[in-house]
What we know:
This protein is α/β, with parallel strands linked by helices. It has helices at 2-9, 26-34, 48-58, 75-82, 98-102, 126-132, 135-146, 151-164, 170-180, 194-204, 207-217, 235-248, 272-277, and strands spanning 16-19, 40-45, 65-69, 87-93, 222-232, 260-262, 285-291. A 7-stranded mixed β-sheet has the order 3-2-1-4-5-7-6, sandwiched between helices. β1 (16-19), α2 (26-34) and β2 (40-45) form a beta-alpha-beta unit. The longest helix is centred in the middle third of the chain and has 14 residues, at 151-164. It binds S-adenosylmethionine. S-adenosylmethionine (SAM) binds next to α2, β2 and α11.
Amino acid sequence: MVAECLEALALSPGDTVVDGTVGQGGHLRALLRAVQPGGRAIGCDLDSEALTRVEAWLGEEMSAVTLVQGSFADLAPVVRQQVPGGVQGILLDLGVSRDQLISPRFSFQAGGPLDSRLDPAGAETAADLLAGADEAELTRILRDYGDERFAPRIARGIVAARAQAPLTTTEQLVEVIRRAYPAGARHGRIHIATRTFQALRIAVNRLYEALDTALAELPALLAPGGRLAILTYHSGEDGRVKRAFRALSRAADDGTPAGFSLLTRRPLAPSPDECAANPGARSARLRVLLANPARSAA
Ligand SMILES: C[S@@+](CC[C@H](N)C(=O)[O-])C[C@H]1O[C@@H](n2cnc3c(N)ncnc32)[C@H](O)[C@@H]1O
C-alpha cells in the first residue's frame, strides 16, 4: 500500500520523515522522494541485514537518509536529538518483509533452525522460548499472539516432545502441531503451522511491547500538522493501534481539545487489484493520526 501511505502522510519537499520499519526499503524510497528537494528520512529496522541491503540499493540517495539499527520503540531519543522541532511524517509497516518470509530464520515450509528473530543478533530464539516457557505460558502465547484455536493441545504437545528431545528445528515443531491438530482440521485455507509461527515471531521479538511503547512515544515526535501512519496485518496489532489512536484524539474531560485527530475512522484496506497481485497484502489495514496544528512537538 505504498500509494495509500504516501497519500496518508501528505509529505512536502523539505520535510523530515521517519520510516520505523525499513524492510526492503520500498516505502522508505517513496517517502524520501516525496520530501525532495531538501528533505531527509530517518529509517529504522531491527534487521541489520535488511539495512545493509537497503543502504546499497539506495546508493547516492543515502546522502539524505540516516539508518538506525534497533527497535522503533527506541526511536524517540534519536529523532528528538536529530529533529528537535518534530517530524512531518512517521510510518510503521508492521509484520515481516518478503525477504524475511523466505529466509531460513522464518520459513517453516523450507525447514531449518527454530529461530524467528528479526534482529539476527537478538538474544532469544524460538528454540530458547520453546525450551523455557511452561505449558500455561505456551498456551497463552499461541492463543493471544496467534489466535490459535488448538493452543492448549499444541502447548501440551510441545511439553511432551521436549521431554524426549529439545525442539530445535522447524520440522520438529510442524510435526508436533500436526499431531496436536484433529485430523479433520489439518487441511484448512492456511497451513496448520502458520498461526503458531506468527505467535512465536511476536513473542520472540516482543512485538506487542514494542508497538505499545511506540504508540505511547511516537505521536509526541510529530511537528504540528504531522502525521503518523501505521499498517498492520492482523487483529491483535490493529486493535492496539485503534485503541491508542482513539484515546489520543479524545478531548479531555475538562473540554481541553485533543492534541491529535483521527484521519481514518475506519482503517484503509488495499484495493482489490493489490490483493490480487499480492495476496499477502489482503489483511493490511492502515490507520492515520494527525498532530493538530495548534499543538507543539514535545
Ligand atoms: C512488512 S516489513 C516492512 C516492509 C517495508 N515497508 C518495505 O517497503 O519493504 C516489516 C519490517 O519491520 C521490521 N520490524 C518489525 N518489528 C520491528 C521493531 N520493533 N523495530 C524495528 N523494526 C521492526 C521487520 O524487521 C521488517 O523488516
